[in-house]
Design brief:
By secondary structure, this protein is an alpha/beta fold. It contains twelve helices and 13 strands. The longest helix is centred in the middle third of the chain and has 18 residues.
Length: about 350
């Protein structure tokens, strides 16, 4: 079920934006009650921009972007808000209209290439099928396009690889094949869902380098879902931090790494091993677990895990800030630097 509202009057609604999402809410009816997996998020993506979405598992990263392109096919789902792509509202479009947008205009790189690829068809056939679904082309032209794309994403000897089945490729090669499929129709927007998960560090670096190359050579914008702060630091222009279905902080990469404002972002930073200095006996961690979406506390959803929570946190904070850097936190701006510096000590004491 979809409910659309107009997108207007927000800082995210830039005139040059390729995608504008306003007040997106995704809820699921369950036997235990209503679960709001995404709770009123707003953001935009500009042409040729890479936007990272970071957060723990269950924070709503994948659900939010799957709903943007209509890939949540559940009779118990309710999607509200507005998703405007190139001036066209996507929420509420018919399935046929969405299929014309998906693949051709907006493509997705799925997290697990082994399950995203059909095992009984060659990778070349699957890429060609995607290409022919959106273009009037013969099988010969589509096969040539598949070979061209496999070469473009760095698969050796693409004329031979085009006839291989998914199980005949390594994990890194399968991920490249998925990227080639996504690029088959030169989409303007790529959604990459954990594209480096389960890959060794060398292959991860190659995939990240490939994503940057895609932006340069194909002019694609990229929405990058990840839980890895290192991946964000490598490729993103802007970053959104999600927690319990909400955006708790967003800003440029420089903002998020040099001067993060939200305690959850401090916890993510503190958990990264230092590259220099003394080796810590134990990395700081955020105690507890992400909250159940059925029993969210009133007010700030991070308050039960935050050492700085106080009475005002019983209210829900709104994103506030300036110059494109905002955070949903009541800690006064002049206290943030001191509070962040004390975070590792507080976390060690708590654990």
């Amino acid at each position: 079920m979809y409910s659309s509202t107009p997108a207007s009057g927000a800082a995210e609604d830039r005139g040059d934006a390729l995608l504008v999402v306003r007040d997106l809410k995704v809820s699921f009816r369950t036997e235990q009650g209503l679960i709001r997996a995404v709770d009123g998020i707003s953001f935009s993506v500009a042409p040729r921009e890479i936007v990272g979405i970071v957060g723990e598992s269950g924070s709503g990263k994948s659900v939010s972007l799957l709903s943007v392109i209509g890939l949540i096919d559940d009779p118990n789902v309710r999607i509200e808000g507005s998703v405007v792509y190139k001036g066209q509202e996507l929420l509420g479009l018919s399935r046929a209209a969405l299929r014309r947008v998906r693949g051709a205009e907006i493509a997705m790189i799925f997290q697990d290439p082994m399950t995203a690829l059909t095992p009984v068809y060659t990778i070349g056939w699957q890429i060609a099928e995607q290409y022919r679904a959106h273009n009037q082309a013969s099988s010969r032209i589509a096969r040539s396009r598949a070979i061209e794309l496999l070469g473009a994403v760095g698969i050796p000897n693409p004329a031979v690889a085009v006839d291989r089945y998914p199980h005949e490729l390594s994990g890194g090669m399968r991920q490249r094949a998925i990227i080639a499929m996504a690029l088959s129709c030169n989409p303007s927007l790529l959604i990459a869902d954990e594209p480096t998960t389960a890959l060794d560090v060398t292959v991860q670096a190659q995939i990240l380098e490939l994503l940057q190359k895609l932006r340069q050579e194909f002019g694609s914008s990229i929405l990058l879902i990840t839980h890895d702060m290192g991946v964000v630091a490598e490729v993103a222009d802007r970053v959104m931090v999600m927690y319990a279905g909400q955006i708790v902080e967003h800003g440029t990469k420089r903002d998020l790494f040099n001067d993060p404002w939200h305690p959850y972002a401090w916890g993510l930073h503190a958990s990264i091993p230092p590259l220099s200095g003394a080796r810590p006996a134990r990395l700081p961690s955020i105690p507890g677990s992400p909250p159940s979406l059925l029993t969210l506390v009133a007010g700030c959803s991070f308050a039960p895990r935050c050492p700085y929570h106080f009475e005002k946190c019983s209210q829900r904070p709104r994103l506030t800030g300036q110059a494109g850097h905002e955070a949903a936190c009541f800690i006064a701006p002049d206290r943030r630097a001191v509070a962040r510096a004390a975070w590792p000590t507080l976390r060690r004491a708590a654990t």
